[in-house]
Specification:
Number of helices: 15
Strand content: 15-25%
Largest sheet: 8 strands, mixed
Distance between the termini: 45 Å
Radius of gyration: 25 Å
Number of domains: 2
CATH topology of the largest domain: 2-enoyl-CoA Hydratase, Chain A, domain 1
Length: 478
């Protein structure tokens, strides 16, 4: 322990970690450069506190930038403390949590500071997929520092003081901060896809603590379990009424009805996050057409399609789960792809990423079709064709190319209403019914919505020892 924990940066660490568990590393490190009278300025710990402690008894490494020391700027020794922390974390297989409050590059150190940024990026890249990396932004995170959260797995930002940007709002042609603050939490959380949660400082620290409780310590850790105090055969009585807001549906399935959602403001047509099933962490991805607020009031209604942002959000999440051996559950309820000019710019690329993420993942994968599953949008949502190990479908689910009425209108253009109704009913029975999909082997079992929890738990228990070999390669290119 050290007196450094009395600073704001230090208090964030002590608030984050279990009481009296923080051990500081590199307390005496200070800047080496003497240019521009830097030696005359006091720089305790060179503006960053580094060390280790525990969260709920689990080892984590933490660095917290001290804005009161040289504005928290990154220089040579500042970066070395962070990179050495990463070295320890990789050796011991424990997460790294960065608490950012930084004015950016230290101008007095120039090229040394630029090299320092590069060294941090390099260590983050080596750690990616090996240990979880989490970032909390409490002040400024601008310029080259903004790349740091982009290289981590999860990022949270303080709602009022948190600022993240590569170029400041006033540096953007035709813009100024009063017109559109591209650095603030609201813009970053809804537009960039990098922010997993927004809140007060205390809320962010609590979110990080909760997130760590779901995650394994490293990519070889298979002991990320908690004792399950919920009934494994619990009936989900009202889940059939929750298909619109998949976040609610996922909570109904989860142990003690707890769902930790990530990126709630980005790609809202997808709900993604962590649940526990029989005490084990499971990554969950689901289509979403309605959003309800904390008071159970419908706050937003979507059209049931899959957007480019939703696909990208889901793909990134599935890749994380696969890297850390976390099983994946999907709830499919999708009518097609989002059709507008904005989405069309990146939709194909985003869908390619989603297809690749599901197809490439070798962790246990379970899909539950809870509503409509139409067209290629159904295929990309963890279908049997992409490698889902078990596919369940609710009794009233619809699986096919498109809505039966629309299919009849296309196939029998110009026919009278009676003929269209007849052909639509025939198409629904032969091509869009859940029974038809089950007969073809695309659905393993048709289930009652109320039984979803016990079937999903049973599937993951059966798949616990899953092993799947893939062609040898250096890495993929998608």
């Amino acid at each position: 322990m050290s007196n450094a924990t009395q600073s704001l940066a230090g208090k964030r660490i002590t608030s984050l970690l279990d009481a009296n568990s923080f051990v500081e590393i590199g307390q005496s490190v200070t800047a080496r450069s003497t240019d521009f009278n830097l030696a005359e300025k006091k720089a305790p710990s060179d503006g960053v506190i580094t060390g280790y402690g525990v969260i709920d008894g689990n080892l984590v490494y933490v660095y917290s930038q001290d804005v009161s020391v040289l504005n928290g700027t990154v220089g040579e020794m500042h970066a070395k403390k962070i990179t050495r922390l990463y070295d320890l974390a990789i050796k011991t297989g424990a997460p790294v949590i960065g608490l950012i409050d930084c004015a950016g590059l230290r101008l007095q150190e120039a090229t040394d500071a630029l090299e320092a940024f590069g060294e941090i990026y390099f260590k983050q890249t080596l750690a990616s997929g090996v240990i979880p990396q989490v970032t909390g932004i409490f002040g400024t995170c601008g310029g080259g520092m903004a790349v740091v959260p982009a290289l981590t797995d999860f990022t949270f930002i303080e709602s009022k003081k948190g600022k993240m940007f590569v170029n400041s709002p006033n540096a953007l042609e035709g813009n100024h901060i009063d017109k559109c603050d591209t650095s603030d939490a609201a813009f970053q959380s809804s537009e960039t896809g990098l922010i997993d949660g927004v809140g007060t400082e205390d809320e962010i620290l609590e979110k990080i603590r909760e997130l760590i409780s779901y995650l394994p310590s490293n990519n070889e850790d298979s002991d990320a379990y908690m004792e399950c105090t919920d009934d494994l055969n619990r009936v989900c009585e009202d889940i059939a009424n929750c298909t619109g807001d998949a976040a609610i549906a996922l909570s109904r399935i989860a142990d003690n009805e707890q769902f930790f959602e990530i990126k709630p403001d980005f790609g809202k047509d997808i709900a993604a996050g962590f649940i526990r099933l029989n005490g084990a962490t499971v990554g969950a991805v689901a289509n979403r057409s309605e959003i309800y607020d904390a008071q159970d009031n419908k706050s937003e209604e979507l059209d049931g399609s899959l957007s480019a942002r939703g696909a990208r959000k889901a793909a990134d999440f599935v890749k994380f789960c696969d890297a850390f051996q976390i099983p994946v559950l999907t709830l499919t309820n999708v009518t097609g792809f989002k059709a507008d000019k904005c989405n069309e710019r990146t939709l194909a690329a985003s869908l390619g990423q989603l297809v690749h993420a599901f197809a490439d993942a070798t962790v246990p994968k379970v899909n539950v079709i809870v509503g409509k599953a139409f067209g290629s949008a159904y295929t990309v949502m963890n279908s049997k064709a992409l490698g889902a190990d078990m596919v369940y479908a609710w009794e009233d689910a619809q699986i096919g190319m498109m809505d039966a009425s629309l299919a009849a209108k296309i196939m029998y253009a110009g026919a009278d209403a009676a003929t269209l109704n007849e052909k639509a009913a025939q198409y629904k029975e032969l091509q869009s019914s859940v029974e038809s999909a089950a007969q073809r082997g695309y659905v393993d079992t048709i289930i009652s919505p109320a039984d979803t929890r016990k079937y999903v738990i049973g599937a993951f228990e059966m798949l616990f020892t899953k092993r799947e070999a893939r062609p040898s390669k250096k890495h993929t290119t998608v």
